[in-house]
């Protein structure tokens, strides 16, 4: 067994091993050594507080500037507030209560420097908020001879940590492992390392955790980044090789048939991009090995029409096509829109068309049996559904094409589960996303797929204007928001109001309230706004008299469908919803979207949501409501969304603001992400070099028989994927 695979329970004391597992999910020596420092501290350059995020578990390095004893309001006694400054003289406040306050007071003296770790909150008045850590753990550099020596002579690693686990506990655990590590077998071939000037793996691990200077950190990062890129690219290239090797039934385009009839009836001309991508897909479908293509395009670029034309080509060739959607609302929407686009071609039977069947997990027993029979018998040429399509008892007569909508919601294993239903060969696969993807991300996340891009919007799409509504600073702006909604409804149009939470049905899940030992009298950040609460307040207040509907993921499927149908038909003026309307929902008469607590959504998610308006030739208006003042990172995200409609530009903003390692999501990695150091936007040269080297290696040795260490690294990555997939299903 490799030392990397040794359980932490053997390498460390049981208490530390248990803590590392429960908080960070680390199980082996390799997991711990791959848990790299987030940053490094050095004397004279204290941590900046500019980029803190509410409710993060953070570690700041700072200097104690003031201690204040304050009386407890509404009860006896006092509590301790400690002011800490960073290198830019920004301030963060530490609060201590009870006996802990006296212990802290005895150790924290003005002028002392150290590391302070805890969950960060934003408190005080809305106009003058301030950062605070409640009962933080801390380590003072002056109190420990080792720490003082480290701090003065070398960068001090600060690790991603969590509740009950401080960075210095991790640092000591890493030290124990490094002291007993011994020589490691390097998975990268010697000649490859020489070509790229990369140091040995063992040297890199020592340097990343115990650097003598920042040059050590740089060299170690270069080596370890290359490892991450190389292993991922090797996995993706192996997948691509395996996919090409599988047989698939060719589904060539027919000159007559359903596709020709559909094209002849289209009430609009395809864009140049739709026509070009359509030809690429048609050529892929005509080959005897499976298509694996990613179709990405801006919100409203017409991906559904492209996918439907591909499905009709397969049906014309005697096969079936499946459209897999991430939510029931989206599956129902796709079913309705495909049926509407096909018209009488969706009737099947004597009309010479094909039946379009819907299959979701919460359908009634009779409807579900009928849908399963349609799929298994081949009666349904097109089947639209959710994860329910992945279940073992769902069978198809001749599955020729799998279309996966919003690929980032599904893991690779889930995609493979549907591929297996094709019988003797593999079906062709088309995956779609409306989240534009920078080139380096596409190369890494979807490196096993060919990529097609729709950048041109169909004619008739109106521009969308986006504004941030600073509800806390300027409450009259929020009043004006509801007036605008009434004005749009008065013109015969419709509106969405989106909230981050459902309400009572979720209990406290997702609430971001303050901790119980909050300093009395300070404002705490309220829980996210909930659909059920907001709908009631609007109905009784500013939108009184309008026809309001409520939509969220926990409604029974028939009720969700009924609400969407009513909104689509114009029987509702305003739809108050969660993000179930994020993708695929198409109501041309909707012209305005109000997103409450917009700071709680990601950049790409906000871009997706606002794509629900401006779809019917009407100018779209998106209003992002937030309590955050200007100058905060959350407000900067909202300003970025308001400043551009370019999804590719926003995807770069989104990626830059997310933690490294979150990028792959369920698509390629397990809970312990394989990307810890690699920055997909900044390390394009590393990714390209790693892909070239992986291709060269796999061309000579497709199974990596001669590279046992590299095979082991790939096996670890795939094991994490499978574990994540099993947990999700």
TrEMBL record:
<dbReference type="InterPro" id="IPR011545">
    <property type="entry name" value="DEAD/DEAH_box_helicase_dom"/>
</dbReference>
<keyword id="KW-0347">Helicase</keyword>
<dbReference type="InterPro" id="IPR014001">
    <property type="entry name" value="Helicase_ATP-bd"/>
</dbReference>
<dbReference type="InterPro" id="IPR027417">
    <property type="entry name" value="P-loop_NTPase"/>
</dbReference>
<dbReference type="InterPro" id="IPR033454">
    <property type="entry name" value="RecG_wedge"/>
</dbReference>
<feature type="region of interest" description="Disordered">
    <location>
        <begin position="508"/>
        <end position="527"/>
    </location>
</feature>
<protein>
    <recommendedName>
        <fullName>Probable DNA 3'-5' helicase RecG</fullName>
    </recommendedName>
</protein>
<dbReference type="InterPro" id="IPR001650">
    <property type="entry name" value="Helicase_C-like"/>
</dbReference>
<keyword id="KW-0234">DNA repair</keyword>
<dbReference type="InterPro" id="IPR047112">
    <property type="entry name" value="RecG/Mfd"/>
</dbReference>
<feature type="domain" description="Helicase ATP-binding">
    <location>
        <begin position="284"/>
        <end position="454"/>
    </location>
</feature>
<dbReference type="Pfam" id="PF19833">
    <property type="entry name" value="RecG_dom3_C"/>
</dbReference>
<dbReference type="InterPro" id="IPR045562">
    <property type="entry name" value="RecG_dom3_C"/>
</dbReference>
<dbReference type="InterPro" id="IPR012340">
    <property type="entry name" value="NA-bd_OB-fold"/>
</dbReference>
<keyword id="KW-0067">ATP-binding</keyword>
<feature type="domain" description="Helicase C-terminal">
    <location>
        <begin position="477"/>
        <end position="656"/>
    </location>
</feature>
<dbReference type="Pfam" id="PF00271">
    <property type="entry name" value="Helicase_C"/>
</dbReference>
<dbReference type="Pfam" id="PF00270">
    <property type="entry name" value="DEAD"/>
</dbReference>
<keyword id="KW-0378">Hydrolase</keyword>
<keyword id="KW-0227">DNA damage</keyword>
<keyword id="KW-0547">Nucleotide-binding</keyword>
<dbReference type="GO" id="GO:0016787">
    <property type="term" value="F:hydrolase activity"/>
</dbReference>
<dbReference type="Pfam" id="PF17191">
    <property type="entry name" value="RecG_wedge"/>
</dbReference>
<keyword id="KW-0238">DNA-binding</keyword>
<dbReference type="GO" id="GO:0003678">
    <property type="term" value="F:DNA helicase activity"/>
</dbReference>
